[in-house]
Amino acid sequence: MEQKQQFSLWFxxxxxxxxxxxxxxxxxxxxxxxxxxxxxxxxxxxKVKDLALTDQVIYGTVIGDSVGGLAGKETTDRLNQQGTGxxxxxxxxxxxxxxxxxxxxxxxxxxxxxxxxxxxxILSWFLPAIIFLVIWQFAMKRMSGAGGLMSxxxxxxxxxxxxxTGVTFGDVAGIDEAKDELMxxxxxxxxxxxxxxxxxxxxxxxxxxxxxxxxxxLLAKAVAGxxxxxxxxxxxxxxVEMFVGVGAARVRDLFEQAxxxxxxxxxxxxxxxxxxARGMSVMGGNDEREQTLNQLLVEMDGFDTNKxxxxxxxxxxxxxxxxxxxxxxxxxxLVAIDRPDLIGRKKILEVHSKQVTLAPGVDLAAIAARTPGxxxxxxxxxxxxxxxxxxxxxxxxxxxxxxxxxxxxxxxGLEKKNRIIIPKEKETVAYHEAGHAIVAEAxxxxxxxxxxxIIPRGIAALGYTQQIPTEDRYLxxxxxxxxxxxxxxxxxxxxxxxFGDVSTGAQNDLQRATDMVRHMITxxxxxxxxxxxxxxEPRTPLFLNVPMPQQQTTYSxxxxxxxxxxxxxxxxxSHARVEKTLQANRGNxxxxxxLLLEKEVIDRExxxxxxxxxPVVL
Length: 618
Hints:
This protein has 618 residues and is an alpha/beta fold. The protein folds into 4 domains: 31-115, Signal recognition particle alu RNA binding heterodimer, srp9/1 (2-Layer Sandwich); 158-337, 3-Layer(aba) Sandwich (Rossmann fold); 342-412, Orthogonal Bundle (Helicase, Ruva Protein, domain 3); 423-613, Methane Monooxygenase Hydroxylase, Chain G, domain 1 (Up-down Bundle). The protein is built from 23 helices and 14 strands. The chain has helices at residues 3-28, 36-44, 73-82, 99-105, 118-144, 162-165, 176-190, 193-196, 216-227, 246-261, 272-275, 288-302, 323-326, 342-352, 364-369, 376-392, 400-412, 423-442, 478-499, 507-522, 557-584, 586-599, 604-613; strands at residues 32-33, 48-53, 57-63, 86-92, 110-112, 158-160, 205-210, 231-235, 264-269, 309-315, 333-337, 448-453, 464-468, 601-603. A 6-stranded mixed sheet has the order 6-8-9-10-7-11. The chain has a 5-stranded mixed sheet with strand order 1-4-3-2-5, with helices on one face. Strands 13-12-14 form a 3-stranded antiparallel sheet. β8 (231-235), α10 (246-261) and β9 (264-269) form a beta-alpha-beta unit. The two termini are 69 Å apart. The model is unreliable at 1-7 and 145-150 (pLDDT under 50).
């Protein structure tokens, strides 16, 4: 049971017991209940006084220290426990016509009293109930942290002031174009009159799109930090609840808060959770998410940008957003953030390494060259892994060896030092990786080999050949793609030549090679047989490498057979080229395989030394 549930259960039990005790106190008090017969005996003995008579009850005072044995044993004991002196009592009045005469004869003062118990009823029941409700509401506020059930429609946005974000544009690197675009937003907030004097309007919304880890949220916080305005941060999923109408209420509340704090920035992270195109729900109908989206659209149309409220949002799924969100007048500006290039990666490494003690020989440019495709979050993790590696080795500074180990850790996975591989499998892995390396060195359009390892890493990788690109590439020619396919098949063909048999280790290589050939045929029109036509496949999201639902093909069965035949043909041609290359370099293949078995890891320097004896035949 969770802590909040335990607290609620014990509080309920304690409050119920307390209410019963209070009710019992007010209903019983400290009044002794006497049987009417004992009251008559005490009356005759003159041991009672100050009587008040009602239709049903007689109230009075009994002298406890002089009762003696006049009353019953139970009454006498109870009075003795209360101590000496006078004690109040009550007794149920019976039909006794001589009562008044007996009181007058005993010269005991008495008076009449109206029997009304409404006040005691209020004290015994309603007052404890009110106290219970007050304490319950206080407890619910403490447990929910947002005002209890009454605040279910309130916005959960967190207000970050400039000193709380702690992020400026100086902390953002590698995405200079996006940063320049958002600097204009800061100018809108700082000097709006500069743009209004010419009749210009401040953009209502800025949508930041990009792959995960590229710095979308960091950019939004940097805008708030530079402008020095309140920053309302909320995730798209926080608007949607199971209660109908709650999401729309939170949207209204968020914009009300923003107008009160203007100028300010509203930032909605993961907008796709809220802004998915209407009609895509598998449940059908107008669901709660669509109600929330409709309210967001209305609020974006309704507020005045001249008040200084700017909406910023981030997503990595722009293709599924509702078109109504993307039209001018709502999200006026679209800022796309791509993965950083070589220069950008170097700048990002410089930012994240400020807090790390680097050794004099660390070359951040070389590290940036070895990390193509890394986003900002990946590079931050890389620097942290290198620092942790140096700390485990008790070094005084982080050197290139630590960064080299961190790159292997991030790209290949955790090193499996205790995994036992039988000698025959280890030999197979060694020649497999040697085949990749020799073919890569023999192809003019292939990236150079940086490291070869046969130490197991990750879940299934028994070895790897790491290639280092000399520059970032945005276009690939057909010859370059064919060389990459040859490198992928180098390990499989090497196994055939050396052992006359093949293993399951080439599964991933074959999959990647097949996908590359299929894209050359169906996307890029690089097939001589099928010509310049393209044949669409199920699309993938723009920034996420996940498959979309299967779509119906737009070509005939004969075309599908032709595509399959062309894939087999191109792979067979690549196999023949690779086999010819490895046979021509069989000496280097055997030498590299044996060296790998001996050292397990070979860097670029050792590879150059080996190939200097017998250069690779192209």
